[in-house]
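Figure 2 data, in text form.
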Amino acid sequence: ILFFTFPKYILVFQLLYKHPQVLQAAKELNTQLNSCEKDVPVGERFVLSDKIVLIYANNVQNLSFQARLTATLPYPFNEELQGIANSSGIPLGEIVIFNIFYEIFTVCTSIVAEDKTGKLYHARNLDFGLFLGWDVKNNSWTLTRELKPLVVNLDFQRNNKTVFKSTNFAGYIGMVSGVKPDLFTLTMNERFSLDGGYVGIFEWFLGRRDGMWMGFLTRTVLENATSYQDAKDKLAKTRLLAPAYFILGGKNSGEGCVITRSRTASLDIWDLDIKKGTWYVLETNYDRWKPPLILDNRRTPAMKCLNQTMQENISLPTIYDVLSTKPVLNKLTVCTTLMEVYNGHTETYLRECPDPCSPW
């Protein structure tokens, strides 16, 4: 196992985009994004999001358009995006589109498992960069490689006390994973659907703004939810811009679930049920009652590994091994994050998938 270190930042809510460490991260972000833009061929950058990007790219340098769009985003997110742009020197429009990517391109595997003593573990592989440029020389997805230096550990504090922790990309103000110490853990996976993120984002551009951005919702829940049940209710009921899977873990036995969301409602909640033998829940990017795409079946090998591990042997190291099994680990995997709710323990590892390795 290779261990990598990367920056850790303590962020104070009221001064988020003025904090010296954030200013430094913003400068590093500028360098990395410039590298991404240079290395990814123009024709390959936005294969799946071409319609959104065409609309946006035609206006991205228009200061009036940038200001109008940013103003539509809820507080404090609009001010944070402006602050990152000011601090990094990156045009505001590029910062906004960088954040939009995470609403529609996050391909992941998330697990919540309970051991024989009732202790809960939460882990995920973050896979990102599908169809956004293939590096023939390095046999890897270009954006996946370029994003690895942007991985940071964040500790959000208020009054010198941790509110929640997250592993994130510098410059992204939503949350794809996080832990609220002694209360709950949370990850978000993209859900592929015909009524997908593109529809909600188009509606937002056109003026309908009654849905919430997924990353903003997860961050709001991590900041404000007061219990596992409170977080579960908010994730299940809040109207969204895009379909999603929310994988939630608590602190008590049986507190773990996968919430399958459409943009408007909760379609399914799959709970841990120890009495019935359900000691883990696992989500990739497909509804659990449907077979996964034959070209992207990470679910079956992950479940096979968990079943072979057995509940009496489950731990963060054994879950790491599950997430290191190909094709659960693949060319898109940026990092693996392991979390325990007690004391808000998190650990994250940047990943490489040696050949032969599945592209996704």
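Caption note: The domain at 8-350 is CATH 3.60.60.10 (Penicillin V Acylase; Chain A).
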